[in-house]
């Protein structure tokens, strides 16, 4: 803060940017200024929250300090500017009406889980909002999913058609009230209403029926997680084979009966974002086996809206709560859309008349290296900006193909959309286009260029080419490490390690086991996995045994492949034919595919039922085993490793030991390259680093040797983080 020259009355203007709207910031400033007997005003503008205060310099300095120290806990301040301005002789402190001005750069706030005050009122028979499923206040409630435009004021939300009753209006206009300018403020008299009842819905769940519930960011499908037949029906109708389902637990106390959790994990569960937290389940509970299948984790969340709280009170047991869609399609948000799209999945619906503007799935978070790392970024986090180290040109980044998100760069903020999904279906591609239009409109953003992946056939690449804007193409694995470096504000040269399943390489091959020495704009590919042939290209992504056959073919020769492989002779014969002639064989350096191959050779998984499935199972095999043993993988040459895996497998070495030796080999190779390249800073990115054993061990070993290791926190290591990296690289 600038220093005031005299001790006479001064006037200070403070501008705050970040997530400062819709969190009770103005009443907080009003109370603080009034308490300190300062005069002036506060207002929300499209470029941030602006405060002007007049008083003695000491007091103003103290005000500035308290403004930071006592601000509402839901707020996020990314930029703060202070300036001394001419004294105006104001006589009181006021909250001015919002005004829309030129640049819209203020953050739209994410949806916030129901606060404790609102929860208490919900269960208090004497309160006028007793059992009212849409109660909220400035500390909680929907935001991003109801805002149509900014500034965030009621006429710009889907609450505009609900006219406040006199009592709600009085709360809304009273700066001393918890609901002062709570835009979705509502009560049973004037607010949204349920269509259906909570008790009927609870009865349906108890009968094992599938319920379509209109939640915060769209419809959820709920089912009793203790009933295997009901869970199986949901899997079959949703066409979801083995991918684990997330659970909503009635309370923290009940969640504890089912899962182990640390203090940090409890904090995450109870945070305002209220994400799905991946936890280790306790053995021997009544959760049906087909909820999470072989996954070592159970995805758990707590009720985050009043409607969820009321329903879970009637259903005091774990419920599956999964996105209301067919596998891989976007989540349904309108009542009519849900009624038609989900009619063959849900037996029963519970809807309401508060419209949802945009779909927002539940976010997924897991603790890695002792810190929260977001694996799917949507409700509760989107669309908070990611602050990067420098100003970026105004570009629109389109992300990758799987787990797509898009982003816009506004100054030092990159606003990342919520998780959109795999751009495989028409519905997903429409959702992708809506997300682009939506972000641009919310921030009055006009991109100067569009950034896409290098892959010529991605739907997003085609969209970029037809956009009429200049197109910047960014290599997939470079974007991965750029994203991780950007969110960690890594300055100077670093070694970026980018490992995933699939991405289009600069040479047209499928990359995925890459090391880059990065300095400014320069990405030097300093190492990579020894290439091998992927027979059938994309088919090998699902059928991991193809990668196994290919590696065994290389290591053993073709005759042995038949004997060693555990697949059907016909399919392997076809692969050998392809490899012999090099027909439909695409070269790859993908570590993800190496995971598939090893998982297949040891018999853990021949196929990926969802992205990263085989790798997850292989990691899970390690269990609590800790060993320093490792296969050789020097210079990324997998041949000695594959021989070792096959020998051990034949000799009956426990799979846990093979899995650990394999993971350790990867870590040793990382360390080998790091010591050759000699950059102190190491950045780990790509879907392979969702593997907690690998990430934690690599980080620990590197740190023990003096390296500084950066991993993802705010954006996912998987392709959900690509858009951030693209936006950053377009600006360099
Ligand atoms: Zn509240
Ligand atoms: Zn009311
Ligand atoms: Fe990737």
What does this structure look like?
- This protein is of the alpha/beta class.
- It folds into four domains: 10-95, Alpha-Beta Plaits; 194-352, DHBP synthase (Alpha-Beta Complex); 385-488 and 715-730, 2-Layer Sandwich (Nucleotidyltransferase, domain 5); 528-710, Nucleotidyltransferase, domain 5.
- 33% of the residues lie in helices and 21% in strands.
- Helix 22 links the parallel strand 26 (681-685) and strand 27 (708-710).
- Helix 18 packs across helix 19.
- One zinc ion binds next to helix 3.
CATH-level-2 architecture of the largest domain: 2-Layer Sandwich
CATH superfamily of the largest domain: ATPase, nucleotide binding domain
Number of strands: 27
Q: What share of the residues does DSSP label as strand, in percent? A: 15-25%
Overall, the morphology is globular
- Work out the helicity level: 25-40%
Number of helices: 23
What does the radius of gyration come to?
Answer: 27 Å
Straight-line distance between termini: 31 Å
- The low-confidence runs, each spanning 5 or more residues with pLDDT under 50, are none
CATH level-1 class of the largest domain: Alpha Beta
Structural class of the secondary elements? alpha/beta
What ligand species are in this complex? zinc ion, fe (iii) ion
CATH topology of the largest domain, anyone? Nucleotidyltransferase, domain 5
What number of structural domains do the residues give?
Answer: 4
């Amino acid at each position: 803060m600038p220093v005031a020259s005299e001790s006479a009355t001064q006037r200070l203007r403070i501008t705050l940017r970040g997530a400062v709207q819709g969190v009770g910031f103005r009443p907080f400033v009003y109370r603080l200024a009034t308490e300190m007997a300062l005069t002036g005003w506060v207002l929300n503008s499209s470029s941030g929250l602006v405060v002007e205060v007049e008083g003695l310099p000491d007091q103003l300095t103290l005000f500035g300090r308290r403004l930071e120290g006592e601000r509402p806990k839901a707020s996020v301040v990314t930029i703060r500017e202070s300036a001394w301005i001419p004294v105006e002789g104001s006589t009181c402190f006021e909250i001015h009406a919002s005004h829309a001005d030129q640049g819209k750069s203020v953050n739209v706030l994410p949806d916030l889980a129901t606060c404790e005050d609102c929860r208490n009122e919900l269960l208090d028979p004497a309160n006028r909002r007793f059992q009212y499923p849409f109660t909220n206040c400035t500390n909680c409630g929907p935001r991003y999913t109801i805002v149509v435009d900014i500034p965030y004021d009621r006429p710009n939300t889907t609450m505009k058609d609900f006219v406040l009753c006199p009592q709600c209006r009085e709360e809304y206009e009273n700066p001393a009230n918890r609901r002062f300018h709570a835009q979705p403020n509502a009560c049973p008299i004037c607010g949204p209403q349920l269509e259906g009842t909570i008790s009927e819905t609870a009865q349906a769940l108890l009968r094992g029926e599938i319920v379509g519930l209109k939640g915060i960011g769209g419809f959820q499908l709920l089912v009793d997680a203790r009933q295997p037949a009901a869970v199986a029906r949901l899997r079959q109708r949703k066409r979801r084979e083995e991918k684990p389902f997330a659970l909503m637990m009635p309370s923290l106390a009940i969640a504890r009966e089912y899962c182990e959790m640390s203090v940090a994990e409890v904090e995450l569960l109870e945070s305002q974002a209220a994400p799905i937290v991946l936890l280790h389940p306790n053995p021997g509970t009544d959760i049906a086996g087909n909820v999470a299948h072989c996954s070592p984790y159970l995805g758990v969340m707590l009720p985050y809206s009043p409607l969820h709280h009321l329903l879970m009170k009637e259903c005091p047991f774990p419920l599956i709560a999964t996105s209301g869609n067919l596998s891989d399609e976007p989540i349904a948000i309108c009542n009519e859309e849900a009624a038609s799209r989900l009619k063959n999945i849900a037996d029963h619906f519970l809807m309401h008349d508060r419209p949802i503007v945009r779909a927002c799935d539940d976010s997924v978070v897991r603790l890695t290296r002792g810190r929260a790392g977001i694996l799917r970024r949507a409700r509760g986090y989107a669309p908070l900006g990611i602050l990067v180290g420098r100003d970026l040109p105004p570009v629109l980044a389109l992300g990758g193909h799987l787990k797509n998100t898009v982003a816009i760069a506004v100054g030092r903020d990159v606003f990342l959309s919520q998780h959109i999904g795999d751009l495989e279906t028409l519905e997903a591609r429409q959702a992708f286009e809506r997300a682009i239009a939506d972000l641009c409109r919310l921030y009055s953003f006009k991109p100067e260029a569009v950034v896409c992946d290098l892959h010529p056939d991605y739907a997003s690449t085609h969209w970029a080419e037809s956009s009429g804007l200049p197109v910047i193409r960014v290599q997939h694995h470079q974007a991965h490490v750029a994203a991780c470096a950007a969110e960690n504000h890594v300055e100077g040269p670093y070694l970026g390690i980018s490992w995933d399943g699939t991405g289009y390489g600069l040479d047209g091959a499928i990359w995925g086991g890459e090391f880059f020495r990065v300095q400014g704009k320069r990405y030097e590919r300093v190492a990579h996995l020894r290439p091998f042939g992927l027979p059938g290209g994309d088919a090998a992504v699902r059928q991991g045994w193809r990668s196994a056959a290919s590696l065994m073919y290389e290591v053993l020769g073709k005759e042995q492949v038949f004997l060693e492989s555990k697949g059907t002779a016909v399919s392997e014969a076809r692969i050998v034919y392809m490899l012999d002639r090099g027909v439909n064989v695409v070269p790859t350096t993908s570590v993800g595919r190496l995971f598939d191959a090893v998982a297949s050779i040891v018999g853990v998984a021949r196929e990926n039922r969802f992205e990263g499935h085989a790798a997850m199972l292989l990691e899970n095999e390690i269990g609590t085993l800790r060993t320093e043993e490792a296969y050789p993988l020097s210079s990324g040459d997998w041949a000695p490793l594959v021989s070792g895996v096959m020998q051990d497998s034949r000799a009956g070495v426990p799979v846990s030991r093979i899995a650990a030796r394999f993971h350790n080999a990867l870590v040793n190779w990382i360390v080998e390259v790091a010591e050759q390249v000699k950059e102190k800073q190491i950045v780990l990115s790509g879907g392979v680093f969702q593997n907690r054993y690998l990430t934690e061990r690599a980080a620990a070993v590197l740190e023990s040797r003096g390296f500084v290791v950066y991993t993802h926190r705010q954006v996912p290591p998987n392709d959900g983080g690509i858009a951030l990296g693209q936006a950053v690289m377009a600006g360099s």
